[in-house]
Amino acid sequence: MIKAEEFVEVARRLGFKRYTGVPCSFLTPFINYVINDDTLEYVSSANEGDALATAAGAVIGGERSVVMMQNSGLGNAVSPITSLAWVFRIPVLIISTHRGAPGVKDEPQHELMGKITGELFNTMQVPWETFPDEKKMIEPALERALNHMQKENRPYGFIMQKDTFAKHPLKKDSITRITNRVTQRKHFASKSNEGLTRSSVLRHIIHLTPESESVIIATTGYTGRELFALTDRANHLYMVGSMGCASSLGLGLALARPDLQVVIVDGDGAALMRMGNFSTIGTYGGSNLIHLVLDNEAHDSTGAQATVSANVQFADIAAACGYAVAYDGDDPGLIDELFSTGMVAGPKFGHLKIKTGTIENLPRPDVKPPEALRRLMKHIGTEF
Fold first, then answer.
1. Model-wide pTM > 0.85
2. 316 to each of 78, 187, 268, 379, how far by Cα in Å?
3. CA 139 to centroid of chain Cα atoms
4. What is the C-alpha separation between 149 and 4, in angstroms, rounded?
5. Contact 318/326 with Cβ under 8 angstroms?
6. pLDDT tens digits for 280-306?
7. What is the CATH number of domain 4-160?
8. Which residues of the chain does CATH 3.40.50.970 include?
9. First-to-last CA distance in the chain?
């Protein structure tokens, strides 16, 4: 058994200061220590996949990051581990507990995952080892993890057994209370019945995002492809896979780099898939984060199958989650006002209705995901 500070302080010396996660009783002393320390950062995510993506965003912003979860939550994190961190080569340190470990009495829901936790890491090509439970083992274990992360630019895992940490009391609340925040709420109605195209909206956003001062994260599907087709800039990141994780990735980057304007261009299907992250952005996000959902009420790139977004008031949800600005409508004036609000108390949200359909002969980005990411990181000065 070790004390939480024995691990966290070695990790700090090696540059790990950003933590994200979803709690597990095995992790309680660890999380409590991080929360109690004002010089460390902890984001309490709605689910483990968003926690992984937020940690990945912080890495892009230049911060070595740790994501913590119960092994049952590995299921939620499979997509961002395999199609975000692996594909883009983003090195995050994953700490998973080992509930249901063979031979250890536990709740029935942990039985199968307890048997396959290590195999799941292996299948995802994430090298791992048992979390150190003696003080002398901590630094060598972290150095092995860091060496792999620096060499391969991919995740490394620790699997934590029961009773690894001694108790550590929680002394402060990690959550900033925003219940009194007044959201700027406005609807923008178009006088035209023509409807907006995705490409016209993206072209407008490009005009409003100076390359030297902003980053655009475009969700998977037609959004990233159309952004690339319109213009390929160093401040663009075209998401592939990890559907729904653009907003959590953008949150991590925005927290790590408050000097940059981070613009997340989401889709209705992606936003619905990871709607829990609205609450995390509302609590932790700053005024440098703009979250725009382009809503055509369809999964456009897979054949325009309908989503349920026609019945969802995204801006009301964003306002309820604490965004400082929440606009909706079908008029492009929404974009102009969203980008001109300046400094406000928190993140900004826009829900803009658009038409289905895309550019004729729409290309795919000819820059590979790792290359696009390295280009972006070089551009913002956080290259590995």
1. yes
2. 30, 11, 14, 35
3. 28
4. 23
5. yes
6. 999 999 999 999 999 999 998 899 899
7. 3.40.50.970
8. 4-160, 184-380
9. 34
